[in-house]
Design brief:
Chain lengths: 368, 557
């Protein structure tokens, strides 16, 4: 296998047909048909990278959409993802997918708590095809493991993936630690915002919106962090000095409990809730608190309001009156009366519920 | 006091007093002619006497200052404080340095008061130099401490040395035989890493510096005797001076730092060389730490390989998948373990084992290693789980470990469209089975834990898994995980059953990932015990492995 064949722009083959074929196979949970779609594409002249980015990636994206639209069950989604994983693995053994590394070493990892590893996996494969020596550490990588790996291997860059915004504080810790270890950080994934704005505010060296952009940035070379600069993480986010995030993150459980009690007092039907309903409500409140905390962390209203509009729709779908969301904000607001930034966010959130626009889900945005 | 007779330079009395002042004082008129000078001034400006032009006997800086000052209009000047001119004047007189303060009279005469500031200036210069070095060394320490990677550390060393100490810096690391890793950097350019095949005696001082012990001082080298390979290609112009400094490596050879300057620039001073040595001490220490870390981490990796949970895959038509999360945030291993021992042939049973040793961390992990090895040795007896457990129990009782363990054995073989399982629990939570329709059952097996009692009992149960059905082995780290929205609830078996119910029809690795994810999210950022899960699944009549084999076949063709 030579490099030239993988980098050669594929002949004029439309990946659309194979994408539809793959999608149909994923919908059926038919692993064989899925693999057949991909390998036929390769044999008909699609490049391996094209297969990854123009056949598999969009099909996987659709899995997320269908799941969010409730047209796919959790099991369907997992089956489809597992099939895609296997197809990618098989692709690496296909003659068109085998490349001897001739570029530097790169680490790819999902931040701790992030279980959606397929985008990072696809990216790893694309970079491998382009000659990089890639260490893919997988989903949910604890920061100490990541840093130990960086010290051991001394890569040219680390690519950090996160899809759910509530992982941003953890991502910040990982970014800071990697930079301190002298490794530039390229952040990617829906969590960092559509334009990568949070990647910048969290101090990442660069942000990229897709695999090809990552490849371009790597080829240009990412600047090493200045090892002599004494950088303190708080300098990225001076607003954290008010400790609102810290307090809310620390008292999350108490806050959820108090809100649950407060809601019961104001919303009598809740007293009749089944155990299961109560649990769902507690989980919803916990999500709101998590997003509130994250919005405080990055100091961005939009992060909170986007999530709230989406939650409003989900609640409506679940036939929970959306005004309970407003009540939730009232109770939370009383609990957080000494937190001006948090209260301002809650006010904005309330406005977002009343406006209730059809906002798309943040990222592929599964609030887990 | 009669002040009416005062001239511009003050009263007669004052004149006499400054005549004997310990500081040089010179009075000159508007045209630059010296009117008077005191004894101290005569001693400094030996060629100057009243009536001379200032420029003839005094240094130019003073004559220039005088010219500038006396050219200024007086009325402006009179509003200001008498001694203020256009800033403080000063300069060298011979090998001393003076500050000159002017007092201006209304007639344009100027009295120059000179203060010897040689010592202060020297002290200031020394202080400035020292501050710069201290800040550089602090900066260097920060930079060097940031990475524990040897290559990165050498890069940083080369970069710092090339920007602060010399025009170019080359680091030669201790190598194997004649091959030495070399890192070089020119100015603020890119760092270049290479492996050079060299005779270390070809460069004076190099062999000694690389040896590390006995300690050798850094030394100047005749640029002509520096071999070609040590001069970076990017360096412009010929080499003017070369210093080689050993990088002290805390008992082990740390390498050698070679500093080069071009012939056009300044050569190394004694001072610069001492400073280079201070830097080398820090760089050497950082490199030694990085080398030690690399060694330790390679030892750990090797030893850990045996303890890490294995990657599972499909064996003889049965899917296996496993997931593991150690309790400690930075731990990789702990007291939970799992293994799958593939059956020899297509219709032979594979044995899956999942267990939990009392305790956490590395110590517990070492015991899991022993149990895993013992079970491996007992594999030929796997057709009788109870007997296998009895033998394991005896082995554990006879070892010096005081810990005990609970475990589950599951033998699995594919029979046409189903997987036949024999499952035995030894004091362990019974495995759960998810049926195609989402029903969750508990395997009917129980038994004593191992490593405590002389005699143990266990019951084995048989289970058939149809296509898309899974059997989940798990440790109590999952069910006892505390967290959730209210912070202190247990994940619990009912939540686990509910989660597993959604896993009907999923491939084994998806089942494992889903359960792991839910448990991890339940725990959030809280503390948790070791968590291990293994899923055994009957895959769909699937041709995938055949297909990958097919691809391999095409490749060979």
């Amino acid at each position: 296998m030579t490099v030239s064949t993988t980098q050669r722009p594929g002949p004029d083959v439309d990946p659309g047909a194979y994408r539809d074929q793959l999608w149909a196979a994923l919908r059926q949970g038919d692993e064989y048909a899925a693999a057949a779609a991909v390998f036929e594409g390769l044999e008909d002249g699609l490049g391996a990278e094209q297969v990854l980015l123009e056949v598999i990636a969009p099909a996987q994206g659709r899995v997320g959409e269908e799941w969010a639209a409730n047209r796919m069950t959790v099991a369907d989604e997992h089956v489809a993802t597992a099939i895609n994983e296997r197809v990618i693995a098989a692709l690496a053994h296909h003659p068109a997918g085998r490349v001897r590394p001739f570029r530097g070493r790169i680490t790819v990892a999902c931040v701790e708590g992030e279980w959606h590893s397929l985008p990072a996996r696809l990216l790893s494969e694309v970079l491998r095809l382009r000659g990089w020596r890639v260490d893919f550490l997988g989903a949910h990588v604890p920061t100490p493991h990541l840093i130990a790996h960086l010290h051991r291997t001394g890569p040219e860059a680390v690519l950090l993936s996160a899809s759910i915004p509530t992982h941003l504080p953890t991502a910040h810790a990982a970014i800071t630690a990697a930079l301190a270890a002298g490794v530039p950080v390229l952040a990617g994934g829906a969590a960092f915002g559509p334009d990568g704005r949070y990647a910048r505010s969290l101090g990442a060296t660069e942000w990229a919106g897709d695999a090809r952009a990552v490849a371009r940035l790597l080829l240009d070379g990412l600047p090493r962090p200045d090892p002599t600069a004494m950088h303190l993480p708080i300098e990225d986010l001076p607003h954290l000095a008010d400790q609102e995030y810290t307090m809310i993150a620390r008292t999350r459980a108490e806050l959820v409990r108090a809100t649950l009690t407060g809601l019961e007092e104001r919303f009598p039907p809740m007293r009749e809730y089944t155990v299961r309903q109560r649990r769902h409500t507690a989980e919803d409140i916990a999500h709101i608190v998590d997003y509130l905390g994250t919005a405080l962390y990055v100091d961005d209203v939009e992060l909170f309001t986007t999530f709230i509009s989406w939650t409003g729709e989900i609640l409506t779908a679940r036939e929970v009156p959306a005004h309970t969301l407003g009540l939730t904000f009232d109770v939370l607001g009383e609990e957080l009366k000494d937190f001006p930034r948090a209260r301002a966010l809650l006010d904005q959130g309330r406005a977002a519920v009343t406006a209730s626009p059809h906002t798309p889900i943040p990222g592929n945005g599964k609030p887990a | 006091m009669d002040t009416t007779t005062t001239s511009s330079a003050g009263s007669l009395e004052l004149r006499t007093s400054w005549a004997s002042a310990p500081y040089p004082v010179v009075l000159a008129d508007r045209s630059g002619t010296v009117v008077e000078l005191n004894t101290a001034a005569s001693a400094v400006f030996s060629a100057l006497s009243p009536g001379d032009r200032l420029r003839d006997g005094a240094p130019d800086w003073l004559a220039d200052a005088h010219l500038r000052l006396s050219a200024e209009p007086t009325e402006q000047q009179s509003e200001q404080r008498p001694e203020s001119g256009d800033g403080p004047h000063g300069g060298q007189v011979g090998d001393r340095s003076y500050e000159a303060h002017a007092t201006r009279g209304s007639d344009g005469d100027v009295v120059w008061w000179l203060v010897d500031d040689t010592d202060r200036r020297l002290a200031e210069e020394a202080l400035h130099g020292e501050r710069q070095r201290t800040s550089f060394l602090a900066e260097a320490s920060n930079a060097l401490l940031s990475s524990l990677n040897v290559n990165r550390c050498m890069e940083v060393t080369a970069q710092l040395a090339a920007t602060h100490l010399a025009d170019a810096a080359v680091i030669i690391a201790p190598g194997k035989g004649r091959r030495h890793p070399m890192t070089s950097c020119v100015g603020s350019g890119e760092v270049v890493r290479s492996i050079v095949d060299i005779d270390t005696t070809s460069m004076p001082g190099l062999a000694e510096a690389l040896q590390g012990f006995p300690p050798v001082p850094s030394r100047w080298i005749d640029p002509a005797s520096a071999p070609e390979w040590v001069v970076p290609e990017e360096m412009e112009g010929s080499v003017g001076s070369v210093v080689i400094t050993p990088l002290p490596g805390h008992g082990t050879p740390g390498g050698a730092l070679v500093l080069l300057r071009t012939s056009g620039g300044t050569a190394f001073s004694e001072d610069a060389e001492v400073f280079a040595r201070l830097f080398a001490a820090r760089a050497g220490a950082a490199l030694a730490a990085a080398r030690m870390y690399a060694e330790q981490s390679s030892i750990t990796t090797t030893l850990m390989r045996e303890l890490l949970p294995p990657t599972l895959h499909q064996v003889n038509g049965v899917e296996f998948a496993g997931g593991y999360r150690a309790s400690g945030h930075s731990d990789r291993v702990g007291g939970d373990f799992y293994d799958v021992h593939p059956g020899a042939g297509e219709d032979q049973e594979s044995l899956a084992v999942l267990g939990d040793v009392c305790g956490k961390g590395l110590e517990a992990a070492v015991l899991t290693g022993k149990i895993r090895n013992t079970l491996h040795a007992l594999l030929p007896l796997a057709d009788d789980h109870a007997r296998m457990l009895r033998l394991l129990n005896t082995a554990l009782l006879n070892s010096h470990h005081t810990r005990f363990a609970t475990l589950v054995l599951a033998s699995a073989a594919r029979h046409e469209d189903r997987t036949r399982l024999r499952v035995t629990s030894a004091g362990h939570p019974a495995p759960l089975i998810v049926r195609r329709d989402g029903t969750v059952e508990e395997a009917d097996t129980s038994g004593s834990l191992v490593g405590v009692l002389r005699s143990i009992k266990s019951t084995t149960t048989s289970i058939d898994l149809a296509v898309g059905e899974s059997c989940l082995l798990f440790t109590d780290g999952i069910t006892e995980a505390r967290g959730g929205p209210l912070g202190d609830e247990m994940f619990g078996e009912s939540r686990l059953r509910e989660a597993l119910g959604e896993c009907a029809g999923m491939p084994a690795e998806a089942v494992v990932e889903r359960i792991q994810m839910l448990a991890a999210e339940w725990v959030g950022r809280g503390r948790h015990d070791d968590m291990a899960v293994v899923a055994i699944t009957t895959p769909r009549p699937d041709v995938f492995s055949a297909l990958t084999r097919g691809a391999a076949g095409r490749r060979r063709a």
